[in-house]
Design brief:
lipid biosynthesis; alpha/beta; eight-stranded mixed β-sheet; 13 helices; 12 strands; EC 2.3.1.-; diacylglycerol O-acyltransferase activity; two-stranded parallel ribbon; Acyltransferase; DAGAT
Length: 331
Amino acid sequence: TTVQFPPQNASLLSQGLQVVAVLQWVFSFLGLAQVCMAVLLSLLVGRAWILAVLYLVWLYRDRDSPRTGGRRSAWVRNWAVWRHFCDYFPISLVKTAELDAHICIFVTAEKEITYGSWQEGQANSPAHKMLITSEKFYLHVLNPLYIYCTQISQTLPSPQSLVSSDKTSVSYLLSRPGSGQVAVLAVGGPLEALEAKPGEPILRIRNQKGFIKLALEHGASLVPVFSFGENELFQQIPNPRGSWLRAAQEALQSLLRVALPLFYGRWGLLLPFRTPVHTVVGAPIPVQLTPWPSQAQVDSLHALYVERLMQLFEEHKARYGVPAHQHLVLT
């Protein structure tokens, strides 16, 4: 089953709104942190310093929010900006099997900006309602990005609950009472973004097993997800292994805990190319609750997940323009 978000054929106004919708999303990842810090510092050194102090006190008291579900808001999810966002590419979500409203982990790939993951968790979209009869989707993002950078955005409600990706956050959500808890995880880690180049589907997953252990500890089904077309949204400045640029990026990643790929899109800007993104959601892998999983159990489930992910890619690649000779490269 496929739900398609076609680009509007239409007016310059519609196209302009789509561009603005995507740019605000890019800005929220790449520029919001700097703006937030500048505003906070200007308040601290100005006459309104008391407001900054009060805000910092509140932020300290609220420090656990990113790890306890964030602030999801149905009102924000209904904003027209998300419809324009989907219309830009367009984005489609493809369901390959029935998904019951039980606890599960959607496992997707890490890119510069995960557009497919964003739409996957957009809880008021027709695609979301087609995927699963739950409104409890949570998109887990890197801790420095969410906790240390977006101070002001932490105050605001989120359309789909952007929450921390650390173990505490995921465990909290998966252990909440009731069914329908869905954690959307990008397991490749920040270094995978440095490999995101058109025509090169490279995933860092062979040694990524933390999500497997979490699935066992909570009995959460694993759902493999692959977004065809995401690597084509940007061009990345060449950074082959062994180059000075790659060495600098990896050194900064170790220091900052976030990757810094140098990429560009349309018109040489940070606007992504208007390339369709097809997010294919695979069949869930049932996982038996195992509070204290052994390393052998973790390895066995990880091997099964990798097998299902490879199978998902091979079964759908021809439909989305991937050459027959091209295969997923797992590192």
